[in-house]
Amino acid sequence: MSAPDRLHLDPIAEARRQWADHGWEEAADGMAAVTSLMRAQQIALGRVEAVLRRHGVTFARYELLMLLYFSRAGALPMAKIGERLQVHPTSVTNAVDRLESAGLVRRAGHPTDRRTTLVELLDPGRELALAATKDLNAEVFKDPGVSPAGVTALVDILTEMRQGAGDF
Length: 168
Description:
Blueprint: H1 11-21, H2 25-53, H3 59-70, E1 75-77, H4 78-85, H5 89-101, E2 105-109, E3 117-121, H6 123-141, H7 148-164
Antiparallel strand pairs: 1-3, 2-3
Helix pairs in contact: 1-2, 2-6, 3-6, 4-5
Protein backbone atom coordinates (compact mmCIF):
# COMPACT_ATOMS: atom_id res chain seq x y z
CA MET A 1 0.00 0.00 0.00
CA SER A 2 1.49 3.35 -0.99
CA ALA A 3 1.50 6.41 1.22
CA PRO A 4 -1.24 8.95 0.50
CA ASP A 5 -0.27 12.16 -1.26
CA ARG A 6 0.75 14.86 1.18
CA LEU A 7 -1.69 17.72 1.58
CA HIS A 8 -0.57 21.24 0.77
CA LEU A 9 -2.11 22.61 3.95
CA ASP A 10 -2.85 21.35 7.42
CA PRO A 11 -6.56 20.44 7.38
CA ILE A 12 -6.80 20.73 11.16
CA ALA A 13 -5.37 24.26 11.10
CA GLU A 14 -7.91 25.10 8.39
CA ALA A 15 -10.72 23.58 10.47
CA ARG A 16 -9.50 25.62 13.46
CA ARG A 17 -9.63 28.79 11.32
CA GLN A 18 -13.15 27.89 10.13
CA TRP A 19 -14.25 27.24 13.71
CA ALA A 20 -13.10 30.70 14.72
CA ASP A 21 -14.62 32.33 11.62
CA HIS A 22 -17.98 30.76 12.43
CA GLY A 23 -18.06 32.21 15.93
CA TRP A 24 -16.73 29.26 17.91
CA GLU A 25 -13.36 30.84 18.82
CA GLU A 26 -13.60 29.72 22.47
CA ALA A 27 -13.76 26.08 21.33
CA ALA A 28 -11.44 26.29 18.31
CA ASP A 29 -8.20 25.39 20.10
CA GLY A 30 -9.84 22.48 21.92
CA MET A 31 -11.31 21.20 18.65
CA ALA A 32 -7.87 21.41 17.03
CA ALA A 33 -6.27 19.62 19.99
CA VAL A 34 -8.80 16.77 20.06
CA THR A 35 -8.81 16.38 16.28
CA SER A 36 -4.99 16.41 16.19
CA LEU A 37 -4.90 13.79 18.94
CA MET A 38 -7.31 11.57 17.03
CA ARG A 39 -5.30 11.89 13.81
CA ALA A 40 -2.03 11.23 15.66
CA GLN A 41 -3.63 8.10 17.15
CA GLN A 42 -4.49 6.90 13.64
CA ILE A 43 -0.90 7.49 12.51
CA ALA A 44 0.64 5.75 15.54
CA LEU A 45 -1.76 2.80 15.36
CA GLY A 46 -1.07 2.42 11.64
CA ARG A 47 2.66 2.18 12.29
CA VAL A 48 2.18 -0.31 15.13
CA GLU A 49 -0.32 -2.45 13.22
CA ALA A 50 2.01 -2.61 10.19
CA VAL A 51 4.71 -4.16 12.39
CA LEU A 52 2.34 -6.49 14.25
CA ARG A 53 0.69 -7.68 11.02
CA ARG A 54 3.98 -9.40 10.15
CA HIS A 55 3.63 -11.35 13.40
CA GLY A 56 0.00 -12.23 12.79
CA VAL A 57 -1.49 -10.32 15.73
CA THR A 58 -3.46 -7.15 16.27
CA PHE A 59 -2.48 -4.52 18.82
CA ALA A 60 -5.22 -5.75 21.19
CA ARG A 61 -3.84 -9.30 21.09
CA TYR A 62 -0.26 -8.06 21.42
CA GLU A 63 -1.27 -6.07 24.53
CA LEU A 64 -2.78 -9.21 26.03
CA LEU A 65 0.36 -11.25 25.29
CA MET A 66 2.55 -8.57 26.87
CA LEU A 67 0.31 -8.33 29.93
CA LEU A 68 0.74 -12.06 30.46
CA TYR A 69 4.47 -11.82 29.70
CA PHE A 70 4.91 -9.17 32.42
CA SER A 71 2.83 -11.05 34.99
CA ARG A 72 4.79 -12.94 37.65
CA ALA A 73 3.29 -16.32 36.84
CA GLY A 74 2.70 -15.83 33.12
CA ALA A 75 -1.01 -16.24 33.79
CA LEU A 76 -3.88 -14.00 34.88
CA PRO A 77 -7.60 -14.37 35.51
CA MET A 78 -9.81 -13.29 32.61
CA ALA A 79 -11.45 -10.58 34.77
CA LYS A 80 -8.08 -9.11 35.76
CA ILE A 81 -7.03 -8.99 32.08
CA GLY A 82 -10.12 -6.93 31.24
CA GLU A 83 -9.50 -4.63 34.19
CA ARG A 84 -5.82 -4.07 33.37
CA LEU A 85 -6.42 -3.57 29.64
CA GLN A 86 -9.54 -1.50 30.38
CA VAL A 87 -11.70 -3.46 27.96
CA HIS A 88 -15.07 -5.21 28.13
CA PRO A 89 -15.08 -8.91 29.12
CA THR A 90 -16.39 -9.80 25.65
CA SER A 91 -13.27 -8.23 24.10
CA VAL A 92 -11.07 -10.28 26.41
CA THR A 93 -12.93 -13.46 25.49
CA ASN A 94 -12.57 -12.74 21.77
CA ALA A 95 -8.85 -11.97 22.04
CA VAL A 96 -8.21 -15.06 24.16
CA ASP A 97 -10.20 -17.21 21.71
CA ARG A 98 -7.99 -16.02 18.83
CA LEU A 99 -4.74 -16.39 20.76
CA GLU A 100 -5.77 -19.82 22.01
CA SER A 101 -6.67 -20.95 18.48
CA ALA A 102 -3.20 -19.84 17.38
CA GLY A 103 -1.58 -21.88 20.17
CA LEU A 104 -0.20 -18.83 21.95
CA VAL A 105 -2.19 -19.03 25.21
CA ARG A 106 -4.42 -21.54 26.96
CA ARG A 107 -7.26 -21.35 29.43
CA ALA A 108 -6.81 -23.18 32.72
CA GLY A 109 -8.76 -23.55 35.91
CA HIS A 110 -7.67 -21.48 38.88
CA PRO A 111 -6.01 -23.70 41.52
CA THR A 112 -8.08 -22.31 44.42
CA ASP A 113 -11.18 -20.70 42.84
CA ARG A 114 -13.27 -22.91 40.56
CA ARG A 115 -15.23 -19.86 39.31
CA THR A 116 -12.10 -18.24 37.86
CA THR A 117 -10.52 -19.02 34.51
CA LEU A 118 -6.85 -18.26 34.08
CA VAL A 119 -5.20 -17.42 30.78
CA GLU A 120 -1.66 -18.82 30.56
CA LEU A 121 1.02 -17.63 28.18
CA LEU A 122 2.52 -20.54 26.24
CA ASP A 123 6.09 -20.67 24.92
CA PRO A 124 5.07 -19.80 21.33
CA GLY A 125 3.15 -16.79 22.70
CA ARG A 126 6.18 -15.68 24.70
CA GLU A 127 8.38 -16.02 21.61
CA LEU A 128 5.94 -14.05 19.45
CA ALA A 129 5.62 -11.32 22.10
CA LEU A 130 9.39 -10.93 22.31
CA ALA A 131 9.89 -10.91 18.52
CA ALA A 132 7.09 -8.38 18.00
CA THR A 133 8.46 -6.20 20.81
CA LYS A 134 11.92 -6.26 19.27
CA ASP A 135 10.47 -5.04 15.96
CA LEU A 136 8.19 -2.44 17.60
CA ASN A 137 11.11 -1.07 19.61
CA ALA A 138 13.28 -0.78 16.50
CA GLU A 139 10.65 0.52 14.07
CA VAL A 140 8.22 2.54 16.19
CA PHE A 141 9.00 3.09 19.86
CA LYS A 142 12.63 4.28 19.53
CA ASP A 143 11.48 6.98 17.09
CA PRO A 144 7.78 7.73 17.56
CA GLY A 145 7.99 10.77 15.29
CA VAL A 146 8.71 13.51 17.81
CA SER A 147 11.86 14.63 19.61
CA PRO A 148 12.84 13.06 22.95
CA ALA A 149 11.74 16.25 24.73
CA GLY A 150 8.49 16.11 22.78
CA VAL A 151 7.95 12.50 23.87
CA THR A 152 8.31 13.51 27.52
CA ALA A 153 5.96 16.47 27.09
CA LEU A 154 3.44 14.35 25.19
CA VAL A 155 3.39 11.65 27.86
CA ASP A 156 2.91 14.32 30.55
CA ILE A 157 0.05 15.97 28.64
CA LEU A 158 -1.69 12.68 27.89
CA THR A 159 -1.25 11.52 31.48
CA GLU A 160 -2.91 14.72 32.65
CA MET A 161 -5.76 14.18 30.19
CA ARG A 162 -6.22 10.54 31.19
CA GLN A 163 -6.10 11.36 34.90
CA GLY A 164 -8.64 14.17 34.44
CA ALA A 165 -10.96 11.71 32.71
CA GLY A 166 -10.71 9.30 35.66
CA ASP A 167 -8.64 6.76 33.71
CA PHE A 168 -6.66 6.00 36.87
